[in-house]
Specification:
CATH architecture of the largest domain in chain A: 2-Layer Sandwich
CATH class of the largest domain in chain A: Alpha Beta
CATH topology of the largest domain in chain A: Methyltransferase, Cobalt-precorrin-4 Transmethylase, Domain 2
Largest sheet of chain A: 5 strands, parallel
Radius of gyration of chain A: 29 Å
Number of domains of chain A: 3
CATH superfamily of the largest domain in chain A: Tetrapyrrole methylase, C-terminal domain
Shape of chain A: elongated
Oligomer: homodimer
Largest interface: A-B, 109 and 110 residues
Number of strands of chain A: 14
Chain lengths: 361, 361
């Protein structure tokens, strides 16, 4: 066990997101490293932090942290107090988590000094409720032969459930490229041709956000076709796709994101999530049919054994449906109950049995 | 239009989460209010902030902000620079958003100074990837006659999709009650009797977190039955329910949350989300049947018109299924294709037609 310490200090969003505690921690460290490749950070921000703390920081690259596993940091932290300054809140990037685990395994104490994160700040800047955000995704620059469907599919799944989505935009420090809101929306709209689920259509309500945490931040929402052409200026940018809106949220989008009108057309019609009550209505509908069903005269033409077999088959699917539901497998339950309905309907279409579906006249 | 300004300054998590920018903003304000009812905050934290900034803060209650709409603040902000200090990052509570909208409508300039938020910090403290968190929920103290199923259902939906969930715990400043991890888990486990979807079972992997942002924070994960009896000390507490784990996340839970073992039993068996590929297999299976199906000798006993009607009916459900799928309504599509299968199966059980399902021998 060494006596060293590795402290991850978030310097938050913008130009003065370091906390009072973070500043003290930096001042008291033996050595201070900083990485700026996980979020776009202008050089002057780091210079300001150096001035504020009266310390010089050593820059670490993606290569140093990801390929070399932060060997230099871990070496230094084995017997001294080392700070790694990171943009936003620490541990938003897997690299930082992996580095922390590595340090702990080497007997180096670790801790975090939190700061602001885009995850909370983006929600707040739009006035959208943070708990209604579903999973988030990053829109990455397409390679020559692949484009990730992840952001499209994530937004789709969230919209289906009425949830908001935060889309982070790719930043490639080595190439000095940061994705803009405009680039991302154009890319996402092009995926509409592949998926066609009406997610990134011209009328979709979207919010572009730029430079949160800086004095010259910008938040502007509207229809996708309008925001496509909006100039958001310097990076970093991100996007929020609102889901169902509470009236305070709708009001907030107008006041805080300058959204002109919120049309009722924003609702997604995709539905891949089975509501339990709908399933239960199917199941109780079939239950009623089994109570009422009776054989018709014309059924004598067919082998009675075959009819009984078909009815038994239907009944066993009905029972399977209940069992699947009770085990939580609503998909198989829905398949089973609809299958059962189909068998019953088949018998009825052949004029072998008589019954009415719930609500049928 | 007044010349005033209302600035929402987050003081983050713990005892020194105020940022350097936030501190400057407080120092330069004409008047500083603070609210501590949206998150448990010991008095000494506020006293430290007063000492640090050399200012006295005026406490505002829930009643003042929610029932009276923050009238006093808005009045003061109409012609002076007013700061409202809030725990965490600003605008995590609807009250703050509503107050901001109200101010803007009165022509009062508003802005936010961000700070750390439990949403990002809880993920980081467990070493779980922030983008894999689904929607979050708050576990509230049950009233005498109601208990909210929301947290249970939220965790269920997230687990189904492999997502993590952050559960915030109720805090009632007026009654000086803050919910503990233990209370919340006991409550959630009791809901298992109502829902029975195997979410809050004894073996469920859960992580309890206490006092993030304070030096004496605690993070401890394990099976629900073990964490139920863990002492987390002073509030505030919260809970994370991990979903599917990347290997770095599994490793992080062991190192950072002291999880002894991660059994493969944590997977949820609930399934209410329809995978497109499964649906497509059903649809292409039926397509094959329509190509192969032929009438049997015994079908002569039944009116040929009835058989044709049943086959037409089945075919039209098959077409509906494709149309629903293409419109994104996978639920109706699945119902239609299973119904179609049922009709076909019914005809086969009656020995009227002959065909084989995909893979059937």
């Amino acid at each position: 066990m060494g006596e060293g310490e590795l402290i991850f200090v978030g310097f938050g969003l913008g130009d003065s997101g370091l906390t009072v505690k973070g500043l003290e921690t930096v001042k008291n460290a033996d050595k201070v490293y900083v990485e700026t490749y996980t979020n776009y950070t202008p050089d002057w921000v780091i210079e300001e932090l150096e001035k504020l703390s009266g310390r010089r920081f050593e820059r670490v690259s993606r290569k140093e942290l990801e390929e070399l596993g932060g060997a230099a940091l871990l070496e230094a932290a084995s017997d001294s107090k080392v700070v790694l300054l990171v943009p936003g809140d620490p541990f938003m990037a897997t690299t930082h988590i992996a580095l922390r685990i590595e340090a702990e395994k080497k007997g180096i104490k670790t801790r975090a000094v939190n700061s602001s994160s885009i995850v909370a700040a983006a929600a707040g800047a739009c006035g959208l409720q943070i708990y209604k955000f579903g999973e988030s995704a990053t829109v990455v620059f397409p390679d020559s032969d692949t484009v990730s469907m992840k952001p499209y599919d994530t937004v789709l799944k969230n919209l289906e459930r009425g949830l908001h989505t935060l889309l982070l935009l790719d930043y490639r420090a080595e190439e000095n490229r940061a994705m803009t809101v405009n680039y991302a929306l154009r890319l996402l709209r092009s995926l509409e041709k592949i998926r066609g689920m009406q997610v990134f259509i011209d009328d979709r309500l979207v919010v572009g956000l730029a430079r949160l945490g800086y004095d010259n931040y910008k938040v502007k929402g509207g229809s996708l076709k309008d925001i496509l052409n909006e100039d958001f200026g310097e990076p970093p940018h991100c996007i929020v796709i609102p889901g169902s809106l509470h009236f305070v949220e709708a009001e907030a989008l107008k006041v805080l994101a300058d959204v002109k009108e919120i049309s009722p057309r924003e609702e997604i019609n995709a539905r891949s999530y089975i509501p339990l009550d709908r399933l239960n209505r199917y199941i109780s509908g079939v239950e009623k049919v089994f109570r009422d069903i009776r054989l018709l005269e014309s059924s004598r033409l067919v082998d009675r054994g075959d009819i009984d077999k078909a009815l038994d088959w239907a009944r066993s699917y009905y029972e399977d449906s209940q069992a699947f539901r009770d085990r939580g497998d609503l998909v198989s339950s829905l398949v089973a109950v609809a299958y059962c309905e189909g068998i019953l309907e088949g018998l009825r279409l052949l004029n072998l049995v008589e019954f009415k579906w719930e609500g049928e006249v």
